[in-house]
Amino acid sequence: MKLIHQVRAVKNKREIANIKKAQKLSELLLYDVLKKLKTGVTEFDIARFITNRFVKLGAPILSFPPIVAFGKNSANIHHTPGKTKLRRGDFIMLDFGCTINGYCSDMTRTYFWGEPTKKQKKIYLAVLGAQNRALKQIQKGERRAKIIDRFARGFLAKVFKNNFKHGLGHGVGTVIHEWPNFKPKSEDIIPAGCVMTVEPGLYFKGFGGVRIEDMILIAKNGYKNLTNVPKDIKSVIL
């Protein structure tokens, strides 16, 4: 069974082209979503807009139901969009993707509706720092999943104890979660030609959370980031 997973993990040019196309479409849609945000809009309104817009863009099959979380709901890793309305000072977490010819995309961005507080900013910069550290290890040629996970997790633990509650990332292909996985106890060695997510997060019940997720293509030397949406602190303050 593992051999099948390993063969499936390494993508050919056609498969990579489909994943890139799905990601480009998701990025186009993200900018449409940002224009739709306004005080008083509900999570459900935005989630419905995402679903309908993908249909209009010719990608009716989503990678998974979109996650739209405002304010303290962003502390829930797999939040189901509801009637919560957007208010000034809120976190906005958007996690979605679509499929092209059966191949998935996956991306998360966290925004602030107005100027973030010191604590919000600290959380955001910690998550971004953790992602950058993991990517740096991959760039250097590290391919042991648990070591890559450890670099991000160790950095976050120094700033906020035990609030990173999931693996650092997973393979992406015809299903949204494929082998291999970035996890603390993973024995996986990440092969070149594999598409992975790198998605550290911090979550604080009753306050909110931040997740930043990029999709990358593992190369023989380093990686190529397939996600082209700005994530610096200035770009995420709306």
From TrEMBL:
Organism for this UniProt entry: Candidatus Nomurabacteria bacterium RIFCSPHIGHO2_02_FULL_41_18
Molecular function in Gene Ontology: aminopeptidase activity; metalloexopeptidase activity
Peptidase M24 domain location: 18-219
Pfam families on file: Peptidase_M24
PANTHER family attached to this UniProt entry: AMINOPEPTIDASE, AMINOPEPTIDASE YPDF
Matching SUPFAM superfamilies: Creatinase/aminopeptidase (SSF55920)
Gene3D superfamilies linked: Creatinase/methionine aminopeptidase superfamily (3.90.230.10)
Stated name of the protein: Peptidase M24 domain-containing protein
InterPro entries: Creatinase/aminopeptidase-like, Pept_M24, Pept_M24_MAP, Peptidase_M24B
